[in-house]
Amino acid sequence: MLYADNVSTNRDTQFKSRSMANAPDTKKRSRLFRVFRILLLLALFCGLLLYLVFILPFWGIPFNQSRHGRVPLTPPWALECWLWEDDINTAARVKELLEGYAKHDLPVRTILIDSPWSYRYNDFKVDEDRYPEPVKFFHGLKDQGYRIVLWMTCMVNSRSKDTRITKSPQFFEEARSKGYLAGNGYQWRWWKGTGGFIDYSNPNAMKWWHGLQKQVLDWGADGWKLDGCDTFFSGKIWKIPVPFNRTFSGWMTTRQYMDHYAREEYRHGLTRNPEFAILVRSIDQPWSHPEGFAPLDAAPVTWVGDNRHTWAYKDRGIEGAIADILQSARLGYCIIGSDVAGYHGRSNPDDVGPATSALLGAWAKSANTPVAATNEFGTAADNDIAPNVYIRWAEFSAFCGLFLNGGHGERRLWKRTAPELEIIRKFSWLHTELVPYMYSHVVECHNGGQPLMRPLSQGRFHYLFGGDLLVAPIHADKLERAVSLPPGRWRYLFHDHEILQGPAELKREFPLDEFPVFVREGGVIPLTVTRSYTGFGDTNSAGFKTWLIYPGGNSQFTLWHPETHPKPEKTTVTVQTGQSLKIEFSGRREPHILRVFSTAKPARVMLDGSELTEADSWQFDAARERLIIRTRDYAQGRYEIFATPGAATTGHTSTL
Fold first, then answer.
1. 610 CB neighbour count, 10 Å cutoff
2. Which of 173, 154, 167 is nearest to 224 (CA)?
3. What is the pLDDT of residues 71-126, one digit of tens each?
4. Is residue 615 part of a domain?
5. Residues 402 and 465 in one domain
């Protein structure tokens, strides 16, 4: 027993010795655990604080599903070409621009009048030094068929920059004293002065605000460009800016104010004009508002902010514009664009390489270039936009919902280079011709379908423009472009004789006057053609709807007629291939021209059971491989086209 007790005592002693030896390590681990726990709690607290004071009020994430409703029906006029400039804001410059564009046959539907145009910012009273006889000026533009969009923000200024009236404390105090401003008149210094935020939740404030707007709306303004002061909406706690403030309806966050801004201006505009539109931001760099600036339901037309006259993403050039536009499309915005050639800045010295310079220098002016303009090329005093940047940006914008030609820099194309004038004119008209195609996708998106632009995962900056066109924008000073074709059979839009089988990777050069756009085999594309620049018709096409048809299997397109907006009517065209080619129209009737791809002249062309006469009703263009059918009236709209026995009609397939 004594031996056992001794053994037990020794074991206890050894255990206690080990315990005492391990005690410092245990205490050290305990202290480290407590420090880690404190740091974790501190990080969680800071994260929660960051979320509550910034992410939630500024971005609204994740409680912003109410912002992702149906997109509006964009009026067709807003899908045509816009024009503006931001160097000289006067009636004389507007007149010079519009007369010059008309003289050189450049299409313009909308003139955007940017700031400053009023006596002080957002008093909505036209500065008659800049725009003399404003009633006559507005009515004159309307009589010529132009649409007018005016710049505005949500600020009531006490001090304005660059306007005729710079100090306006009485204007500001009137709004503040009556409770029309958020935060009891809390002021923010912005790029056009200092002022307070109009309170969109206050009915009396809105009555006053809409009263200020009434005159220019009465004169015929068709829309507002809503610039980005709403993102500055804030208050202060202990002199620290915070993204919320008190309004008539209670506390309001920056995100909520941004939604009120777009929705209220759009809502009120529609009460004055059923074709009213607002131009608002969608995405302007992904980190600023990743959820999107404007709510989808108040975003009939959007642009992506202030890009620069250059190429690279890091410089906010065309790559930045493309990236922001495609991200906007992923969020669900339908009609998106950017300032053609960028809003401001100078092109970099290496934006035009030697090869491009040689092409520009060797450009032969076409017969369409007016003789009177030949001596004016290159006389711009500040030619700060590289010609190839302007050209490629315009080509890209032809395949965006918004073609917004404007910003700083020379916008009088007849004072730039011959290739710029001719190529930009060609793609401006192509964009104009595509309005029926674009508007049809606007209606489909409004009804719950996909947006007009549909980014693809394969290929850098690749996207579908509607269901039938693949676009791979050129975003650098290179003629060669790598293109990733999706599955299916494709044709290059500008030389469509060859079938390209996808999926496939290809590299090819695209001349300055062409762009990487591919049409899906089976594509059906409605156009409104009135000129010959694009090759899809000519002046004799006016008064007809032109249909590009690329037979392949069975396909269908529903045209929603732009001229019937805001209650659009439809025509559906169904194409079936087999022993004969069948094309059937249903719905609203109108004169049309069918441009059907075919490598061989048909044996017979039937309409509603009766054979059409060659030359009178149809012709075959062997060089372009087109069957062209012109029809003014029809009973049922059922075509049947019979091929010549033994003739192939689909064309050559490339294996790449």
1. 9
2. 154
3. 999 999 999 999 999 999 999 999 999 999 999 999 999 999 999 999 999 999 99
4. yes
5. no
